[in-house]
Design a protein that fits this description.
This protein is α/β, with parallel strands linked by helices. It has 2 domains: 101 residues, Ribosomal protein L30/S12 (60s Ribosomal Protein L30, Chain: A); 155 residues, Alpha/beta knot. The chain is 33% helix and 19% strand. It has 12 helices and 12 strands. It has a 7-stranded parallel β-sheet. A 5-stranded mixed β-sheet has the order 1-4-3-5-2. Helix 3 links the parallel strand 3 and strand 4.
């Protein structure tokens, strides 16, 4: 069972994992160096533990102890109990969900492991660097039957605190890995029978309605960076380019919004995820 340790000093070195969470560059450095990630909120902390991530420590306001009593009972990691004002001073933001956990990352799985369930739909991301977009896209994927999330090396970390929070824990349950390099990963998908289709605004794009009328049995949907979409290098890897028709004067959607439209419109017609 987790040991409850009351802390009243914001400078206490035992709180180092939770310090200055708003500083993205600092968090990236610390989390990469120690192989950790941060989960925020009762549901996300619980999902992280259930997904097999071993807690290093917990940070909780007293009112959250009962709600996570079963999680604390199953762990020998310390639980630092702090007032909500102190938590805000340490983390740099108001911890309105009341509970945080520092957890050990699992080894990054292979593409074979991620695709072991033979999903009919997978999402591939190139250069999506905003953590909120990665989190929202993962939540859309989990909700709409996409079986795996594949990211190129430049994409934001799905286990960064904001990505996990926005995804409502979906990045902890949806199988994901990195494709490095992207071209090799796309070739491996094609070898497995996936049609590789990019969401683009090019003149070669066909309407999503046309593809949805008779969608491929296996489909890998590729999404590009928030600003400029897919690079020319990525476009050369595609079997098909797809566009979502827009009303006059609007040329694109946010990548997370477009993913929700695409996942729903292009879902397998036999109901298989």
């Amino acid at each position: 069972m987790a040991e409850l340790v009351e802390i009243t000093d914001p400078a206490d070195p035992r709180l180092a994992d939770y310090r200055d969470l708003r500083d993205v560059s600092l968090r990236r450095h610390l989390e990469a160096e120690h192989g950790l990630f941060l989960a925020e909120g009762e549901k996300v902390v619980r999902r992280a533990v259930l997904a097999g991530h071993r807690p290093r420590s917990f940070l909780m306001a007293p009112r959250w102890l009962d709600g996570l009593a079963d999680v604390l009972a199953s762990s020998d990691a310390p639980c630092y109990v702090v007032g909500e004002d102190l938590a805000e001073r340490v983390t740099g933001f108001h911890v309105h969900r009341g509970a945080l956990a520092s957890l050990h990352r699992l080894p990054l799985p292979s593409l074979d492991d991620v695709l072991s369930g033979d999903p009919a739909r997978v999402a591939v991301l190139e250069g999506v660097v905003d953590h909120a977009n990665v989190g929202a896209l993962a939540r859309n994927a989990a909700a709409l039957g996409v079986g795996a999330l594949l990211l190129d090396p430049t994409c934001a970390d799905p286990l960064y605190r904001r990505a996990v929070k926005v995804s409502m824990g979906a990045t902890l349950q949806l199988p994901w890995t990195r494709l490095d390099p992207l071209a090799d990963g796309v070739a491996a998908l094609r070898d497995r029978g996936y049609v590789v289709a990019g969401m683009t605004l090019s003149e070669a794009s066909v309407s999503i309605d046309e593809v949805a009328a008779d969608p491929p049995a296996r489909l890998a949907l590729v999404f590009g960076t928030e600003g400029h979409g897919l690079t020319e290098r990525a476009r050369r890897l595609l079997d098909l380019e797809i566009v979502i028709p827009m009303a006059a004067g609007i040329d694109s959607l946010n990548v997370a919004a477009s993913s929700a439209v695409a996942f729903h419109a292009l879902r397998p017609r036999d109901g298989r995820a």
